[in-house]
Amino acid sequence: MLNIRKLVLKLMAILLIAAILPFNVKQAKAQGGIVVEEPQVAVSFGQSITFQAKIKSSIPIQQVSLLFRGINEENTRVENLTVSPDGFVSFTYDASLNLLPPFSWIIFWFQATLSDNQTYTSDPIRFQYKDDRFPWRDINRANVNVHWYAGDDAFGAAALDAASAGTTAINEFMPVSLSDPIDIYIYSNTTDLQNTLMLGGEKWTGGHANPEFGVVMIAIAPGAGQAIEMQTKIPHELAHVMLYRSLGDTYAAQPLWLLEGIASMVELYPNPDYARALEIASGDNSLLPFESLCASFPADAGNTFLAYAQSQSFVSYIHDSFGSSGLTRLTNSYSEGFGCELGATNALGTPLSQLDVRWRENVLGQNTAGVAMRNLLPFLLLLTLVLMVPLWGAIDLLRQRRRNGNKSKR
Ligand SMILES: [Zn+2]
After folding, report:
1. How far away, in angstroms, is 119 Cα from ligand 1 center?
2. I need a surface site. Which of 34, 101, 130, 312 has the fewest CB within 10 A?
3. What is the 3-state secondary structure (H, E, C) of 177-211?
């Protein structure tokens, strides 16, 4: 009985799909009122983007517009174009006034109103807004592409090796997705990278990942220190991309200490200055509370460094205490919309502030109960004084009374 009902439902579904399919095909054909020939995009990074094409149709064209936007942008730019008799159209966009992120993906399409008063839309075309100011060289393995312009062949190969090793390290904490390509752009100095980010309207933060585009941008100078720099910066930025790929839109809902902590944890060469920074801050009681590192990191360089050092140590502590599954529960909890403090309670049974205390005790060897006592000491002294003044008065009064009593006895 149940099986027959299932069969009938299945048949109905098949019939429904069969009914929809030809309709879709017809619609697609109806949109074909225009043909876009030889579409071309010329990018001059930070300056201009020139779009060109030939718009063809069987009946006269009344009007043509170019529409384009970054794939993650919500507003579409619309430009009316002048059409030559042969259908040629061209538009140059001023990218120095209207900044677009470096290596971001842009889609464009054309809309034309023909003499039948109908508006037809072409299929969208994607292109990448690449930084073309450097003679990039490329090397790739398994969907990981390394691009560099200073340094020899060995430099590129070493960067690719650091990426592979980083991917292996990341895989211990979270799923690694290489189904979409990853592009690692290595600038030879921070000034070049800073300029690129500035021309793209983005802020400088050391390394840089645009995880939604699968793009990593870092600055590494060829030379003696290149291996260490590659083994720290490349895995770190790759981790940001993988976190984004695993978390999607909820990447932005994660506390910054957690994102940076996980990314710092996969650096293959631990930063020796992190331990020193933690020791000093712990000693002079200037550690930053993790509640203050949820939405942003401090603006000044010293405290930014301390924030990274703390995040790396704190997330490692959480990983050691709760395992990779604990970290996954934590990211899931924040993805579900829990706040910074309660997300930890929900995932690990302990609020963030309490985890902070435990980390200080277990990793930094602080005696937080002792510290709390020391902080209370001035108040306790004051309290004693406040209580002692009336007490003394009372004792004095008693003494006087006794003395008077003795006198009267005499
Ligand atoms: Zn980072």
Report:
1. 46
2. 130
3. CCCCCEEEEEECCHHHHHHHHHHCCCCCCCCEEEH
